[in-house]
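Predict structure. Input: GRIA2 protein, 782 residues.
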Amino acid sequence: MGPSLSSQVKATSPMSTGLSLPQISPEALDPTLGNAQQYPQLVRISWPDSVLSRALIDLLEHFSWDQMSIFVSNDDYGLHGLVDFQLIAGQNGWRIHTLQSFDPTENAADIEVTSQLRVIKDTGARIIVLHCLASYAAEILREASTMDMTGAGWAWVVSDGITALELYGTINGTAIVPDYLQGLLGPIPPSNSGGHSDAFMAKWRAADPTLYPGAGVADIGPYVARWADAVLALAQALRNLQEDGVTVTPQPLDCGCDGSESRPWSDGSVMLQYLKQVETDGVTGYIRFDTTAARLDAEYSIVNLRSDGWQNVGNWNLSTRLDIHSDADIRFAGGATTVVPYISDLNNKTLRVVTIASDGFVEISDVDRDGNNVTGNDRFQGFCMELFSWLSTELGFKYEYYEVEDGQYGIYNSKTGKWTGMVDDVVDGKADISVAIMSITSERQAVADFTLPYYDNGITFAMQKASTRDEESDEPAKEEEDKESGFWEAVWQSFVSLVQLGPEFLPRSLAGRVSAFFWGVGILVAISTYTANLAAFLTVRNVDNSIASAKDLLTQAEISYGVVRTYAPWVSFKTTTTEPYHSLGVVMQANEESFLVDSLQEGLDKMRQEKYALFTDSAELDYAASRQPCDLETIGRVFWQTGYGMLLPKNSKYTVEFNKAILRAEELGVLDELDTKWIKSQECSGTDQTVLESSVIGLQDMLGVFVLVYGGMASALIVLVGEFIHTCAQDVKKTHPHNPLTLMEAMKTRLKRIFSRRKRSGVKNEVQPSKIHPNPAFIVDM
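Output follows.
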């Protein structure tokens, strides 16, 4: 039976295994002792720390604490005790900021923990899970109090190695709890929940301390009580053996350590089997085991250390899990009732921020949009500035902007061995962080830390939009006069108008011309609409195929191309081996003086004045193309996609804080709002952009054409009737003897002659003036 510590049990277990001698461990908690193949003879009275880990997880989850630091002793008890805790915390998505350990010493007062506590404090986590023995915990918390880590705003969650052992002193039975210990919270295993607890403790209190060391006290603590449980378990196993009529015979044992033959206990396996089958009341609780000889029915009380000692505030067990009492008044360090799990170390710090001007993202001016003079941080506006202001509010820091002196983002100069621009300022410590549209590259990442991208970006190129010229040609119309137009000629004319062929003759009558005019206008609208829609459709399918990708630039010599020489893409073009970008880089290097520009603005001007394509960040080109004068367009797909990030010194302790805040900004839609406000623009929405759409013209859209045609036909009909009546009236006025005498007679005569002409196939009737003296202007044209 024994020993006490897990490390001691591990050391003695091989001997008990070799001798087939069951070993009962009252106190060992190491979860690795649950390996039945490695420790086949071990029976454990205490629940392993893997169960403790579940209780701690539930306790932290109750308070919605998802960030913490862990502090353990550098021994088997400390290192193995919270392995399951870390595993479950990771599965829950919690963040363990740091795991620190200390070396135990024979005298607890000699431990060195200052540096570890400083690391924990610097992480910003305000929840500390402490797993060690009580004697060390008292010294750790005393040292923590000198570092202001035991006041309001801190929470120390401790394991049963602290709650179950003597942590503080008493005077005349009254607890003396120092201020720096008050507020501890953690689980404690039961010490008197078993059916034999009252009887055992009554006898223990009445026992003579001289005969039984430690007797005569009111409470023996949970781990001492486990020894009583171990004895009771053995006694019950022996009783069961006797009741079953099974005899186990004591015999001399020999491990064979001197080279002789080993002699294990022949009845050891029987004894082990009966121990595993024990089910009985104990001192700490009911005693029974699973098939691996691990004790079942794990339970803990949740206790909170106050000025008068440990106070029970809840319970935990494997079946119902955590239950905090409804009337529990839990107080953390400094008497606080709530604790925020994480406080940024940036709180109240003032950061020196380097930046560089970039339209939309960083706009620097001594005058604001209202014309007022501004100074300091007010000179800086834009997407990046508003985002950084939001981060400042989120993380609690202050900042001071300044513009980089050399006007560069930062490239490595192999001749001087130094970086330029903002990268140099951050690396040399002149700036705490750079906030600008700095592309994330592996070269920069090697000397500094980037945050997560706050804006997606890549490389593309832009050119001036292709100009279009309208070519018009006018052909003189051929006039053919004195030609008569009949019904079939009119049908032919309508047909040739539909297909836009020149008719051989035109109607001479006013009604025919009105009808032809309106028909022609309708056909013009229809054909024009169709032509425009077809042109748009073809445009969508084939938009200026001359230059559609970066590869197309290599196959022509009319358009030059380049980059901004101080931007990251220039380095990428010089080092890449991927085609066609490698070949483009070779051409640029060969024509560096004429192809490269010194600034983005110079590149934009060069595109507008020459046949030139500029490769640079897609975000900047999209911004320029969406602003007046709307004469630029981005072409081809985006390649070398990375993003814009903020740059901090290498291994900065603030990087993770900024990353989490940027993720929150994205989740809350802050980045989208800023993008809409500063970058997205509708200035060029009505012009030809890279995204084109073709609309289908439906019948509803063409109703105006039909109204026009039918209106023209109605007008022509009215004119026709009027002209017919007028001509008939002229016939009545004539003095020729064959002329009709009345208007009605004249109309009948005219109609007869019209129909008689239509009956003559292939022959045109010519009306003789001597017979009816017709008005030559009136030729019926159907």
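The radius of gyration is 48 Å.
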